[in-house]
Every structure is written in structure tokens, then in C-alpha cells.
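User: Show me an example of a complex going from sequences to C-alpha cells.

Assistant: Sure. Here are the input components:
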Amino acid sequence: MADENMHCVSYFAFPDDGEYRFICILADDQTHQLCLMGHRDQGPFLSLTADNPAFHVFEREIYERTGILPEEHPWLKPLRFSVDRQNSHKGMDHYPFFNIAGDELHEVGVGPVHAGIIEPGHFRFICHGEKVLHLEIQLGYQHRGIERMMESSRGGLSHALLAESIAGDSVIGHASTHAAVIETLSGSRLSASLSIERAVALELERIAMHTGDSAALCADVAYQLGQVVYESLRTIIINTTQRWCGNRFGKGLVRPHGTWFPLNEDLGRIICNNLDAVMERLLPMVDRLFTLPSVVSRFDGTGAVSRSQMLAVGAVGMAARSAGLKRDIRWSHPSMPWKETAFQPVVLETGDVMARAMLRKIETEQSVSLIRHWIDQIKEQAGAIEQPDYQRTLLPDALAVQLTEGWRGEICHVAITDKHGKIMCYKIIDPSFHNWMALALAVRMQEISDFPVCNKSFNLSYCGHDL
Amino acid sequence: MIKEINILGKHGWQYIPDLEDVTLPETFRGRPVISDAITNEEAVRLKECCPVYAIETSPVFSIHLGKCLFCGECSHVCPDRIRFTNDFRMAVTREEHLVIKAGSAEPVYPDVLAIRPEIRRLFRHSLKLRQVSAGGDNSTEMELNAAGNVNFDMGRFGISFVAAPRHADGIVLTGPVTANMAHALRMTWEAIAEPKILVLAGTDAISGGLFLKNTAIDRSFLSSIKPDLYLPGNPVHPLTVIHGLTALMGVRIRGGIPRK
């Protein structure tokens, strides 16, 4: 458990034959393998959180849904007040916030409805003057019961549509992870052209979100030129996705076994041309942004999370990479076509807002060159692309895991079928699930006025957490 | 300074001068057009393929824009019967106008008679809105943000989103309304002074979408309050937002700010 190359990607319990089955999946970055463990249990189990805080959310979720007690859990609080919770007599208003006694301290409560156009969540700060001593984040407002719907609704197309709405900023990430799980369970292999198409879409999503987040970071430090330039560049990128599949967020593009919108040479040319236009304007902008004293002084050293803290809370994705933790599924557990590119993740050291802003810049450049590389390959693959298929039967008594490195971090979907080939358990882990605690750590000992820029530098998903 | 001038030079003019004069790409899935030559067999097949029950076969074949997720699947099942056009003008003020019937190629317009007179009297020059996301997946939220960005520049019509319900003239609701957000939504609504408007943005908000029959959803708020505007889409396009809100206010969007 103390091995820093191992981290938990999914850990859950589900009812089966009057008992609960526990499944825990660890990823090993060194050997590039996944380690899956499982057991059946009904009674309390010993919590791992005290030794490895990264397990705290997973164990809290298990407790909330099954009522099985993780003994000696140091932070056993409700996770999201899900509709299938055991403590159904309690609701959103009963969250037990941590508090500190002291005449000089005050609390600041923010949300669930926020000042801007953003998803709901409640933030409770304990402050000494302007300084934040502690932040506790209460989530669950966005809980739509998606995981349970994945097990019960009409299947096929409706599952693909549900996957697209897990987090609207990671449509491609979640939809392609879901499609891969379904394809694995149907025993089929993805064609090279389809895997390239999904990879191009995923990297486009990364570029769009990194650019949009850069705009928001500029807005939070009152740098208006940066905000409007990044904003308009994001428009070009998502309009490219719209030109491709009719939707600015990529809804409709990824479907199991095939696609309605094959990536042909013409589209490839449009994508490359638009990326050229974006980069031409982006490069002078980043050059200015990262040398402008008024911006640098707000980014530098703000919201720093150390490598050991990121490791302890089990952070993933770009937040982890910003603090020296080399965690990137495209490198550690790559699927096609990343496997062939000898991909190396960007890793920075300081773990502050500056590092997360800089990471976005470098990853954008990296994604642009990946897309160009893949689009060059399209010409060589003239084979027809398959159409979607929602009717294929799934293997009985099977388990499929898929990991995808979305723009925010690793997305993990696990599906388990029963003896009739029907999905009996579907587990989704969005990177936000791992990372919310890292944001709470980032604002400790910071001025409360720096919270917006810290928050934006992580840009975590509420609905992706609340599922 | 030289660097800024260089950046601004490349940035150029980004706003769309005339928002009426925008053509979205052919791939965009906006207002559908349904052929009236649909056979009974096709109608049944189309109805079955729709996971959100947006398709009705009687009395006439129709698609409900407030239920439709614009996934386009029905247009792939019968490509010569259903076509999603690139027309983003889908905002309506009456729920029954969300239903697109077979054989109708007419554009959709908000019904002026359904707009309360005080809305146009009070909000014509300035409309300040509070956004409440209640289970929205963050795509419609991002599109509402984009409506105010440097390209679409909704602020030119006096429309903006504000940071407190006390400053607001109404709510733009996104998401199917989760049970866990139902209370906060009601409190936000009650904190806004009369007269106030309710706008439903996106399929999830209008009908509940995929989540309609889910017990994690609580739409009781909408049983007591009648929405003033419906903005279909999944997510709703910024142009649909601006088209709908300006129509509600009675503002012509043609022209905008003239280019120098």
C-alpha cells in the first residue's frame, strides 16, 4: 500500500446473492499492470484510510451505500447522500461539518448555488482573518443516480447517452471509456481507424478544456486580455468538434462498435488548419501570460500542494502531474493508439496554480502534435469505418475495466455481467472523485480571496463526483 | 506593450456583428424536419429507437424538442424521413410549441401573446439572471457562459448573469432537478423579487431527459411554477439562448453593434 507506483483506481461493493461483493482495482505504474482483488463480505471490515488516506472516499461510498462499517475510519462522513443510501433519514442539511472552537475564528459558507454559472456544491471555510485554516467541501447536490441507471435502463443507446452526460466537459472521455467497456464485454476488438478517431477527439477535448480553463484563470486574476483571447480560441476548437459531429462538446460522436461521423481526410485537414490558426494566436499569448508580473505574482506559489500530499490523497491526472507525480494513463496503461507513440507525460514540480497553468500550456502543444501525427496516418487507412451497434450480446459472468486519461485525469469504468450477460454492476470513477481533497489542501494557509483561482486551476467536476 | 498590440492585432474582431446572420455547419443538429410520408412500420421503428420517448406516433408523428437529446439516432434509422436542420432557432414560450409535427418545415418562434406584458415592460433594456444548475452535466452551463463571451456577446442586449438572487430578474435553470438540489432551487427562486421569470435551458431542465423516471430527481418545483421560456438543446447552443432571451424581451437582434 505504501508503494508509490501503485494507486487505487476503483474500489466498490455491490449486492450479489444476499451478500456484498467487494472489488478493488489497483494500477501499477511501474509494471503497467492492473491488480484486481475481490472478496465477499457482510460484516464490518478494517478501514485502510488511516494508513492510506486515498481510500477515504471509496470507503465512505461503500459505507453510505451498503451500511457495512469500515472500522477505524477517521473521516467517516456522508459522501453524496445518494438515493440508494442506507441512512435515508438524513439528507443534504445534515452534513456533519468539521469545526474548530476559537474566538478569533470565523466560518464562511459558499454555495450550493455559486456566484457564476457553475455546478452546485457547498464550501465551508474556517478562517483566521483572511487566512483559510481549513476547507471542507460538501458534494452530492448533483446526484442523478447514473450508476444505478447503467444497471437498469434500456441499455444500448440509452447507456451511450448516459455516458455522454456523466460530465458534459468530458463527453469524449467518458463516452469512449464506456464504449470500450461494452466492446470488451462483447468480445470485439476496435479497428485501428476507430481508435485513432477517438484519440483525436479526446485530445481535441483536452485542448478545448485546457484553453477554456486558461481563460478562466486569467479572469480570476483580472487579466482581461488573456481571458478574451483564450475564450475566442476555445470557440474555434469546439466549433471544430461541432463541424465534425454536430455538437460542440462531441455528443453523438462516440458510439459502441462504430461511429456515424468517420474521420476522413477532409475533416483531418479542417482540424489541422484550425489548430494551426489557434496555435498562431496562442503562442504569443502564452509568451505574454507567463512573463506578465501581475499574473505571475498571483499564480506563483498560490495553492501549492506538495508531492507527498498528492500521493497521500491519491490525486490523479494533471493535478498530480503538476506536483511531480508521474500519473498518466496514456503512459502507464495506454490503449491504442497511444501505445505506438512512446508517449511521455509532462511532469512539473511545484504543485501550485502556476504549475497547473503551465501544464495546460505544455499539454496543449503536446496534444496538437499528437493530433497532427494521427491525422497524417488517416490517409494510409482507407478501410470503411463501422456503424454503431447497440444490439450485441454481452459475455456472461464477465468483468471489464477501461482506463482513459481524460483532460482532467484518469477515467475508470468497470462493468460486471451476470450469468445472462446483463450488466449487474456498473462503476464509474471520474478523476474528480480522487482530486477534491487535493483542492481542500491547496487552499490551506492561503488567503480566502485566492480560492477562486485555486478552484479554477483544478476545475473539478461536481456531477462527475456525484454520479 | 508591443506584445499586447501584437496579440490584439492577431485577435482582431471576434464578436459576431449580426447574430441573425449566422449559419451553423450542416452537421449541427437543430430543429428537425419530418417527412409526412412516414409509414406506420417506420413510425413504430422510430418510436422504439428513441430512449427518451421524444417521438409520438399519434395523432400525428411528432418529435418533442423538450424531450429530444438531439442524438440524431432516428435520423440514422430513417435518413429520408427525419432530418435535423442547422436551424438553432428553437426557443418557445408555450410548451405545446415544442412539438414538431410530421410535414412541418415551418421555423419555430416564441409566441408573443404568451409573454406576460410586465416582462417586456420592465426587462426590455436590462435582464439580469441567476443561473441554477440542479443536476446539469456542465455542458449547458458552459454554453450559457459562452453566450456572454467575446464571440456571442450577449451583454450587448443588456442580458447578463448576476451573482446573487437579490440582483436577479429570474432564473435560468439547467439540469433535471436532483432531489438533493430541490430545496436550494426553491430558496433561490423565493429570494428573487416579483415579477420574475423562469427559463428552462436544455433538455434535462425542460423534461428531465434521460433522468425523468429516476427517484434521484425531484421536479415538484416545476409543478407549481410555469416557465416563461423553453430553450431546447443538449446542450442548448449559445445562439439559441440569445435568440430566445431577446425574443422574450422584445429586442431585435439584427444589427447589433455596427462594425466601424
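The lines above are the inputs; the final block is the predicted structure for all two components together. The two ends of chain B are 24 Å apart (CA to CA).
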